[in-house]
Amino acid sequence: MKRFLVLSLIALLLFGCVGPTVRTYVGHELARSEVAVLKGHYLFLWVVYGFRHTGYDIRVGPSEYKVGLSEYAGKVELLPGRHPVTIREFSETISPVGGSGSCRCYALEFNAEPGREYKIKKQGSLLTIVDTQSDGVVASTPDAFLFCP
Q1: What DSSP element (H or E) covers 53?
Q2: What is the CA radius of gyration of the chain?
Q3: pTM (2 decimals)?
């Protein structure tokens, strides 16, 4: 029961957070007009029997960065150009009597433009990357998935 209460408090503090940000380039921080940003999504929901944590994490290319123990991040800054991206869709339910979860990974490739911001969006059976300024789809993949680490 104590573990559930601690996890619940952590969930309250993190509610709505995008997660860790990773720069996929080396050197000093570049201006927003020089990089593209791809955002994942995290959501914590209280349910009758505990809470549910869902969202999308991002890994770009053959990853050379680490976020804690993972190669996935909640927000990624990219240099302009084509990038292979792996998106991890996850869902976890935690309750006082235990928990359960699932995970799927999708492989996409898209052309990041400088100064643009992108988000991950599920549209029917497609997982898409959408330009937030134009609301246009820049990449999509059917509901087929890869092994998730």
Answers
A1: strand 50-60
A2: 16
A3: 0.76
Please give the Cα distance from 139 to 109 (Å, whole number): 7
The residue whose two tokens read 């990219």 is 78
Q: Is residue 122 part of a domain?
A: yes
Backbone dihedral region for residue 97 (phi beyond 0: left; psi -120 to 50: alpha; all else: beta): alpha
pLDDT in tens, 11-40: 444 444 445 678 888 888 899 999 999 998
The predicted-structure confidence for 40-98, as pLDDT tens digits, reads as follows: 888 877 777 778 888 888 888 765 555 554 667 788 999 999 999 888 888 888 877 77
Structural domain span for residue 36: 2-141
**Helices marked H in 17-140:** none
Structural domain contains residue 51: yes
Residue 99 belongs to some domain of the structure: yes
Q: How many domains does the chain have?
A: 1
